[in-house]
Amino acid sequence: MAATIDFDTSLATASWEAIRDLFALDPTATHLNTGTIGAMPHEVVETYDRVTREWAGSLANIYPPSLYPEYRAQIARDFGVDQDELVICHNATEGISRIVAGLDLGPDDAVLTTSHECFSVLSNFNLAHNRFGVRVDLVTLPSGPDVTSEQIVAAFEAALTPRTKVMAFAATTLYTGTRMPIRALCDLAQRHGVITIADAALLPGMVRANLREFGLDFLAGSGSKFQCGPLGTGLLYVRNKVFPEHNPLPLPRFWPVISTWYPLVGDMPKRTTTSVETCNMGDYLQSAGSASIGRAAALAKACELWNRIGRGRIEERALELGWHAKRRVVELFGESALYSPLHDTGLHAPVVAFKPFRAPEDAWNINKVMAFVDRLEAEHRIWIRWVEFEVPGSPHMHYAARVCTHLFNDHDEIDRALKVMARLADEMS
Amino acid sequence: MSDSAPRRGGTLRLYGPGSMDHLDPASAYYALGHQITRLFARQLFTYPAVKDLKDWRAITPVPDVAVEVPSTYNAGLSVNHLTYTVRLRRGVLWDTTPPREVTAHDFVRGFKRMCNPVCGAGAIRYFTSTIRGLAEFAAAYGAAVPHADATAAELADFQNGHEISGIRVLDDWTLVFELIRPAADFVHILAVPFASAAPVEYDALVPDSDEFRREVRSNGPYRIVRYDHGRYLRAERNPVWDKAADDVRNQHVDAVEVVMERADPVRVGQVITSGGADLSWASPVTEPYEANPTDPGNDLGYALNPYLVFNTASPNNGGALGRPQVRRALAWAFDKVAVLDIYDQLAAGTVMRPARSAIPPGNVGYEPFDLYPTPGDRGDPERCRALLAEAGYPDGLTLTFLHRDVDANPEVAKSCAADLERAGITVELLPMGHADYYAYLQDPANAEAGAWDLTSPSWTPDWFGNNGRAFLQPMFQTNRARGTSNYGCYSNPEVDELIEEALATVDEDRAHGIWHRVDELVMRDAAIVPILEHAPTIPHLKGSRVRNAIPMPTIDRWFDLSNLWLEPTP
Predict the structure, then answer these.
(1) What ipTM is given for this predicted complex?
(2) Can you give the pTM of this predicted structure?
(3) Which among A134, A153, B145, B226 has the fewest CB atoms less than 10 Å away?
(4) In chain A, what residues touch B165 (CB-CB under 8 Å)?
């Protein structure tokens, strides 16, 4: 049901309890799985429904609005970029696919990425490997409370080779919840003339982000996780101008695959070498036949709502709740249970991965962690998820419980849930 | 003959000169016998019986005792493809007293047993090169129990006191396999009958011993009630088998009976057409056909049948066969078309061609090449003679040619022997019964003792599709353990290294190239002489009662006995 209070003037100062009421949450459930799917605000649901109804049976020309010029311009501002650099796509997977498919990669090239990436990143690079012969080099990220930004950057630096053409990494890893040192990694890449891609599925809506200042070439994010937009929404950023203070490298050759507006004859306009746009790459990428206006409108509404609450405020809240959850995990399970970073606060995200069970070998017992998550849902209506990832030096796949906190959670809820988890883990240990 | 609805009852009778090599699934490695293995020993995955060999499902493993094929989407396959979590279905029972469910522990026991030093798995390298810790386990097993006459207690002590680090039991119904490296063919490997479950009762039995053959247990639709090696086998319904726990097999006939006796293909055909038997046991007896056979498998992997293996460990002739230049000289001698004519006269009903490489067409790694070309594939005994002289044997050699004494094998041996004799080589033919032949070859002690110098077995790939290793690894990677399929004890470190390199890549094109390089190397070393390559089917003769007889590529196109039924005799 829609919230009935008019928050327009008060959201910037509204209490978190009041803001929680904006969301379509089940009051009997504890939602600690925003890393998989966020909770949509009622306003977003309404917008999606209303705009979809407006277009139902419409005979209007669908193609111009399918480019989402206003929505893109609005959302682009939220992320420090321009409309020509931003595309509303269906999800981060589609964004990554279009980035990888659009790059000129060949058998002399290598991509450097990590084993902690989402399937969508690894599968698309494997496709490129099979299709174009590009080599895929993987580093396994360190994990645990003592991980530092320097270690992560050093791991990438050690794995760079003269063939490395692309560095791809998560903005926040979905397994260990490590907020990657994006700027430092981009600096490293730029020193070597390497293209950068961020899988930022968890980034939009979690923290303030000026994509241009990151220095990235490409980024794909989800609209339905921390941004709490509708399912089937994502953001694709393609650097389309050269701001030397952020990324002095020339724009990489890029093909806007899946494009209605790509010229039928001839080429696109030359891409710029300066900070002035000469070719609207965003439009080429956005033009892909008819599109759901309601979906984009709803995502824009979610972003607008975030602005009304205040993105800085949300970031602070999300990270504080994440930090709270992390401290509770340490209290209840011990610091050594953490797979997420602890001491380097720059790596913090509201995503906490930990081993719930005491016996070390339970860390590689998929059945036990699956049962743990299933029982939390079935017996306590607490929604988290389990994740799997490599740990350097271990022959085993490690399986962890992952808790994601977001602005609509609160401290008590997190405390209660983690206490339940501790009791259940004790029982299962 | 149209198929009817499945009918329950009757005894399916097979007749012919063949034999299983072993009854024990840990060592059984003869496709003919796998018709029987399929009836009583189940694996985690297996192949369904699919009528159309062009249908990809005929060569794709499906769950057997496993609940599902592991994938990233069912949390069975880790993102790095190094960890497989296999969940077992409930209700699969051993025919023990009382009946007991098959558990993950039974599969672990099966993996341990295949490393046993008494009678081990012929393709143990599939497993040791793939599953973490299995090579170490096998090596430690061999070192701890170094004698072939070990007692059951010695074997059980080792097996129960040692674990394979890369196979973990999470609970009775969940197994985890941790691999050394990603292996796209791993589910195929788990579908090889070596990877059968083994009940705890096997701890009291020496693998494939007479006692084992008496006490063998079943978790399939039939159980062995009588087994007289090389003579007779009878399997009857397993009363505790439950169709609800087996998606691929059925239990239509009451019993399966195999009478194994010396008979030529004509005699086998007469017995079947006169109603004295339903199917051939080993003899290539075909349905009548007029048009030349075509390949119904859509270029599905060809088999080598036969090929000649040189015993590189033979001390005879001063160890001549250990020298590649001697083997290379011999490789020129053979008239492959003469052998083809022998099979043609048998009306074998399949596409056959002279073979030139260790990997025949349709298998990963195959590229056409011929290092020993002779006009019309007729052989060049004079060149053989000259090269032998260059190698230091101007007076030729005396070689013992071991061959099976049934079907076309004696004729093939005579033909090859005649080729060698034309090159100045003396050949002593050593016939051996089908029941003993492969077990004899699988014991390296016989090779090392010089009991034979060359022989003419056949090889069909254990699986199709991604099967680069299915010829080269068992046939040529160094393996002198009992049970080996590298019969001639061939060993070349470069080959071993390249095989490991091929296994280490997940790049199929690259792997193909490496497998081909291995093929070239083993052919350059003349480890074998490929004689004929066979398309993957023959239209086996079927008795008038037989319905729904589906040939399975993975058991050399023999039938899935668990899915056929019998109509009453009119």
Answers:
(1) 0.88
(2) 0.91
(3) B226
(4) 395
